[in-house]
Amino acid sequence: MATILVTGGTGYIGSWVVKELLEKGYTVRMTVRDKSRKEKFLHFDTLAASAKGKLELWEADLLKEGSFDKAASGSDAIIHVASPFTLRFKDAQKELLDPALLGTRNVLNAATRSGTVKKVVLTSSVAAVFGDNIDMQEKGLEEFNEEHFNISSSSSHQPYSYSKVIAEQEAWKLFREQKQWKLVVINPSFVLGPSLTGHSDSESLNLMKDILKGKFYMGAPELYFGFVDVRDVAHAHILALEKESAEGRHILAERTMSLLDLTDMMKVMYGKKYKLPLMKAPKGLMMLIGGLFGVTSKFVKRNVGYVIRLNTTRSRKQLGLQYRNLEDTIKEMVTQMHEHNIV
Ligand code: NAP
After folding, report:
1. Confidence of residue 289 (pLDDT cuts 50, 70, 90)
2. Is the pLDDT at 290 greater than 90, yes or no?
3. More confident residue, 295 or 300
4. Ligand 1 center to residue 202 CA distance, Å?
5. Amino acid 288: pLDDT
6. Is the pTM of this model over 0.90?
7. Tell me, what DSSP letter sits at residue 58?
8. Distance CA 340, CA 331 (A)
9. Is the model's pLDDT at 260 over the cut of 90?
10. Pocket of ligand 1 (CB under 6 A)
């Protein structure tokens, strides 16, 4: 069985990728920033012991040049998941842009230097496809597809989205400069579903925590997202790895809906158990008080109230991904959060 290097295996999405690889019998070289921080990968102890595959731990940091070279040497493929997904940062350059861009450069250069890596699967995002929801209307599009790249984000406006588009574009550039490895890119929309790790800062987990704890009780913004189950995202990476014919980008979304539609769906499922939003937060009010929720008035202006549509045909037809139902995703995520006393 092949040896696969996985970056970001300690994280929310990466943990599911490592789990599926181990269950399938691969040797997984999981890179961690600091081997002494055992709490970050404790959840693999029982999982790795019962799986067919073998788990190896290697130390590497996205910000250190050459850091991935040793782990890449002898690996057959790399799944590069690691990149910060946080909207709670102080310095966008240091906390988002550098790890995303320099990290991608370091990991992909390690792939080339390895001489052994034949395929790289990169976790990008729909944030690399578009920046603001209004982009669809401004570009005169019916929907977003894999031909589109985000051109509206910058280091000062939507820096997380900017980190994803500059990282993905760097990956395509490095791919074109060599002939040793193929590149397959996965572009998930907002990811939900149960977490294997209790030590992730992913905004996926923060959003569900905020919803269940009543952060939007007085009103939820009319913000549209694509949503996809974390296990489907992981499986898409495995399909991208294993399918000889896999190439290019793949937008992942089970469906697109507003945050309010999502919480209304949860009201049907849970009744009054949680302080779910009473109503839609008026856009004018959001422009005024958005700062309290960590969003700028420019963000509110260009995103709230604008419907988006995502074309997911490539993920379904080329990769053959079958999506879990969003209702099940939410049910299993909420159950898991209770089991781990998160809510
Ligand atoms: P997460 O749980 O916060 O995982 C981030 C991973 O990146 C962690 O394993 C983290 O390692 C690693 N990392 C961060 N900085 C690093 C550094 N300097 N050196 C080495 N590793 C570093 O977030 P996630 O939601 O799983 O996101 C994983 C990937 O999916 C990211 O590329 C993100 O952009 C992408 N994505 C996420 C979503 C979503 O809705 N969640 C949607 C689309 C795309 P530590 O454990 O050491 O912190």
Report:
1. confident
2. no
3. 300
4. 7
5. 81
6. yes
7. E
8. 14
9. yes
10. 8, 10-14, 33, 40, 61-63, 81-85, 99, 123, 125, 164, 188, 190-191, 200-202, 204
CB 104 within 8 A of CB 138: no
Rounded distance from Cα 182 to ligand 1 centre (Å): 22
Name the residue ranges covered by the structural domains of the chain.
3-339
200 Cα–ligand 1 center, Å: 8
Question: 3-339 architecture in CATH?
Answer: 3-Layer(aba) Sandwich (3.40)
3 state SS of 209:
helix
Distance CA 293, CA 291 (A): 5
- The per-residue pLDDT for 286 is 84
Ligand 1 mutation target, pool 19, 31, 85, most atoms within 8 A of CB: 85
283 an active-site residue? Answer: no
**What's residue 254's pLDDT?**
98
CB-CB contact of 70 with 94 (8 Å):
no
Which is the catalytic residue, given 164, 209, 213, 275? 164
